[in-house]
Amino acid sequence: MSNSSLLTEISLGFEAFSTSSVSLSNEQIDRAIELTHPLKDESRKWFTYLNALALFGFENWLEERGDEFTVNRENCSIFNPEIANTIDAVCNLQVNQFKVCLVTVGSLLDEVVTVPQAVLDLPEYAAQFYVLVEVQEELETVAVSGFISYQNLIAAKINANLEPDEDWTYSIPLQWFEPETEELLLYLRCLEPAAIPLPEIPNRQTLLSAQTAQLQTILPQLQPQNQASNPQLWNLLNWEQATAILTHPSLLRWVYQIQNTTDLEGEIGQSELIETQKTYLKDLLKLISEPAINLGRWMRDELDNLANEFSWVLLPDVSLEMRGYPAMRNMRDTSEEMGIILQQLQQQGVEISPQAKVGYRDLQLAETSLRLYAVTGELESDTVREWKLLLILGTPSQTSLPHQVQLRVSDASTILDEQGLNPGDDYPYIFTEVVGSLEEKFIVTVSLGSELQETLPPFGFNPEQ
């Protein structure tokens, strides 16, 4: 039996009754207003407010019709400002293990309903049921007015040869929605989620890799031009570029941050913040689009293919030097040199495990020779597995670093640290250390001024691979 036939059979003999509006409490209205506060764009504030009211009204509607409906808000877009900033619907909501998308309307006088392309065409946001929710904001009421299943919506879309509008929305005929909303309750009670399969999420890496150069140029243009509105993504990007953003949470977070930058420190402070965001964008695109060197292999005294390709050298055990064994004054052995550096860092309070592994790579920026050491290992913990990366930037000859040198490290959320030299400093190396879960990666950039820099392939840590 087909899924469509199954839905039809369940509804046979079902006597529906008219849908009435449900009221919103003052607390729910206040909470909806609160959810708009992180957003800067006035139109996004308004849409988010209406969507929040739709969610709360839908929950009230379910509650009035029985206690057998379990609502899971954990991944709901309305509580994620990064998604609410870009998608005008309540998506990633779960009811009884079904994915539900609420499509908010102000009235049902029009013959079409606007549905974001993302919630229909991207598996990350698709839903098994699309529910039409009419928000009567002035009356402080909400009415659940219709619904359609995923497969019925896709079939109707294909049959009508429906294409998205230029603003990445579909104009869905109102008549496609089933008005007997009590049938939705029956499906939520009686069906299994597997009865309405959703498309699998594809590997997005190829698409992202193809779009990184264009995104690095285009995305900074999303900076708001005034306090009231943001540039529209659909005016700047094509759908493939939008897909790359919408399906990578870290990119979506970057868009949200640059569109909602608040001038807290005056014009100069905001300008510096935006420049930092642009710099971070370069790191982020490389971090999420390129393969990572697996430093977890170092724990088995191995280099992976990528580390070999980029001429990393894995040092033998330097634990003797770290534990205080004397080293020759005129040392030439790199392991002994590394041991002295680690001794000095330990004296400064940097904790270094005796089981840590060390590798290095020589860099050439113009006429300057540099050496980057990476010290890594898994942290001891009875709870979350984490790893540590200590980065040390010096020169092969252990001479003083040039004053304009900088060492930057970023993760999928932000620039974690930038180290450089102050005027008058005369140091042979600079260093920084970061800690992350086994799923986290870091990316490192070494620079001599803004025009001369090298960003290395990302670092990851998976000792099981």
Shape: elongated
> Please, what is the average pLDDT?
86
**Helical residues, percent:** 25-40%
The low-confidence parts are: 1-18, 263-268, 320-332
Total strands: 19
Alpha plus pi helix count: 15
| Head-to-tail CA distance between termini | 44 Å
Helix/sheet category: alpha+beta
The percentage of residues in β strands lies in 15-25%
The number of domains: 3
Q: Radius of gyration over alpha carbons?
A: 28 Å
Largest sheet: 6 strands, mixed
Plain-language structure description:
With 465 residues, the chain is of the alpha+beta class. The chain folds into three domains: 3-195, no CATH class; 205-289; 293-460, no CATH class. The chain contains 15 helices and 19 strands. It has helices at residues 3-11, 26-35, 42-64, 81-84, 118-121, 150-159, 182-190, 205-218, 233-236, 239-246, 249-259, 266-289, 305-309, 319-322, 334-347, and strands at 22-23, 71-72, 90-95, 98-105, 112-116, 129-136, 141-149, 169-173, 293-294, 313-314, 357-365, 368-378, 386-394, 405-410, 415-420, 430-437, 443-448, 453-455, 459-460. A six-stranded mixed β-sheet has the order 1-7-6-4-3-2. A five-stranded antiparallel β-sheet has the order 10-11-12-13-16, with no helix packed on it. Strands 15-14-17-18 form a four-stranded antiparallel β-sheet, with helices on one face. Strand 14 (405-410) and strand 15 (415-420) form a beta hairpin. The two termini are 44 Å apart. Residues 1-18, 263-268 and 320-332 have low confidence and may be disordered.
